[in-house]
Design brief:
Two copies of one chain form a homodimer. Chain A is an alpha/beta fold and 343 residues long. The first copy, chain A, has two domains: 137 residues, ornithine cyclodeaminase, domain 1 (2-Layer Sandwich), CATH 3.30.1780.10; 169 residues, NAD(P)-binding Rossmann-like Domain (Rossmann fold), CATH 3.40.50.720. Chain A is 30% helix and 24% strand. In chain A, the strands form three sheets. Chain A has an eight-stranded parallel sheet. Chain A has a seven-stranded mixed sheet with strand order 2-3-4-5-6-1-17. In chain A, helix 2 crosses helix 4. The first copy, chain A, is globular. Chains A and B meet through helix 1, helix 2, strand 2, strand 3 and strand 4 of A and helix 1, helix 2, strand 2, strand 3 and strand 4 of B. Chains A, B: This is Ornithine cyclodeaminase. Chains A, B: It comes from Paeniglutamicibacter psychrophenolicus.
Chain lengths: 343, 343
């Protein structure tokens, strides 16, 4: 049988544990997996693009466990009452190829994306950061806020979104959780005095939601929204202001902010910072840029965290996904006995 | 909600309908999809190889519906009590990216592989074929027999497998269904007088289970088992005896029997035969070879067939795979309300 965490159980589990505790837990799994980065099978995601959006499969394996995520990105979905991003994920045992774990990943992707941003910011943002600007207050925004409180203790937020209702929603969700929130009237106003700038907008376009003159020395930019060809958020000039950190260079050159730059533009893969192979932040004045697109190993860490965390709880059920005939060579025997002759 | 056909329901449905009726139904969907071959997004499968076996994702899309299959291949599984091949598959709506249908595909892959062989043989085997040799009587063999009875009316089978128990199982399963079966003592003996030769063995090796001198004029070879790099069944000389038909050339050059041949070895994609662009069998004496590796469009056809066929039945259930917050931008609202402050 395959263990299955559906949406109802994921929501119950997250609400019971508290999202910040889960984000912190995923962050630990992420750090462990980024430290053993070179031991993973890595391949850019397999994307199917249409005018409506994209559907992607993101596989990886550490040679013991195989995992993949199905995820879509449809920017016009919210206007039609659907989620921009939905996802589910699977873990399998490499030794026999059987799927062992299936879970919704719409909620879990939000948690792992935030955990990734938090893990990176712990190393790259100034440790004395206290103020974060958030450009874009859609589905991902609250999770980002949680992650930055966990990683850096940030509780002061300056937010901006072109949709006033999305900002109201953000304030409504986060004020009761102890955040001090300023609603700005522009991106320019939101970033005033910010130590960290998080961009998480959804338009599938080469947008410029942040220009170079707005980025002050010492800032850490957490660029989440630009994550597929033709979808960027930052003025290309920003990428020249500091050092750019990526997950997996080969994928980010196609999908990230650096798709705007030449193919030999210098970047650092973040696992090298964790591994001690590359420097992180070099000075208080340096501008650091995390050009995040999301990578399969992050889903792998999140999937394993949930799988391990729900053991012994009632937050999963078992489903019958893999045929298991008594004689493995007799698949037909499962059905043959019941078939009428010549049917 | 996502419709889900688990193993129990797939087996109940197949047993109730009869596997031959389902194979025939899938064959119709396959023919329709092969005829519109050029309208599909096609990409070679994404494979993760380990010493134990392979795990693959096989996506495709017709720009209305997206589908993919997860499938493993672990040749040593049966000796440990597991299936060589297990699989599950998903359909999604391209317009919003939501997964709409999930099903087990261990049984369904066996049905669709057989249906593909049958569809191809209807065009390539001699119409007066009456005898099929089957080399390999593992999990796929009974389904192949069903497909050839449906496609060509073949009821006389000559079988060979290195595992006597597998042959006994085949005879036990198929004799009651009206087949006339001769158990041979070698591959050489099995192919005597056969109009069609089906090879479906599981060894992950460059095996030679059939040599050129055994292949007589007019025979159709249905080569199923060689389907990944390093796994072939036919003597390379056989491929020079007649015309080789493939599903998707780019993938078959990597995975099929023709991996033994130069990169410019001439093949015909089978959809071209259905489409009238290429000839099928040209004469009663010609040797035709279907170098089958399995392609995503076949799973797409099978998935859609099951999805459509179970409408209005109790052979599926609904699962909660996609988070559906009232406000699509308020994913956090699903869980936020229940989280303690500062948790």
């Amino acid at each position: 049988m395959t263990r299955f965490v559906d949406v109802r159980n994921m929501v119950r589990w997250t609400a019971t544990q508290g999202p910040e505790k889960i984000i912190t837990g995923i962050m630990e799994y992420l750090e462990n997996d980024f430290k053993r980065w070179e031991s993973f099978d890595k391949t850019p995601r397999v994307a199917s693009h249409t005018p409506f959006g994209v559907i992607e499969l993101m596989p990886t394996s550490d040679r013991e466990t195989y995992g993949f995520k199905y995820v879509n990105g449809h920017p016009s979905n919210p206007s039609r009452g659907f989620q921009t991003v939905t996802a589910f994920g699977v873990l399998a045992d490499v030794h026999n190829g059987y799927p062992t774990f299936l879970t919704e990943m719409t909620v879990l992707t939000a948690l792992r994306t935030a955990a990734t941003s938090g893990m990176v910011a712990k190393k790259l943002a100034r440790p004395d950061s206290t103020v974060m600007a958030m450009i874009g207050t859609g589905s991902q925004s609250e999770f980002q806020a949680m992650a930055f409180r966990s990683a850096l203790g940030i509780t002061t937020l300056r937010v901006w979104d072109t949709d006033p209702a999305a900002m109201e929603k953000f304030v409504r969700n986060m004020t009761p959780l102890g955040f001090d929130i300023t609603v700005a009237s522009s991106a320019q106003e939101a970033v005033l005095g910010a130590d960290v700038i998080t961009t998480c907008t959804a338009d599938k376009a080469n947008a410029t939601i942040l220009t170079a003159e707005l980025v002050k020395p010492g800032v850490h930019i957490n660029a989440i929204g630009g994550d597929c060809p033709g979808k960027t958020e930052l003025d290309a000039a920003i990428l020249e202001l500091g050092e750019v950190f990526v997950e997996f260079t080969e994928q980010t050159r196609i999908e990230g902010e650096i798709q705007q730059m030449p193919a030999d533009f210098t970047v650092t893969e973040f696992w090298q910072v964790l591994d001690g192979q590359g420097p992180g932040r070099k000075s208080a004045d340096q501008i650091t840029i995390f050009d995040s697109v999301g990578f399969a190993i992050e889903d792998f860490a999140a999937l394993r965290y949930v799988r391990d965390a729900v053991v012994g709880t009632d937050f999963f059920e078992e489903i019958d996904l893999v045929a298991n005939p008594e004689n493995p060579k007799d698949l037909f025997g499962l059905i043959g006995a019941l078939s009428p002759v010549g049917s």
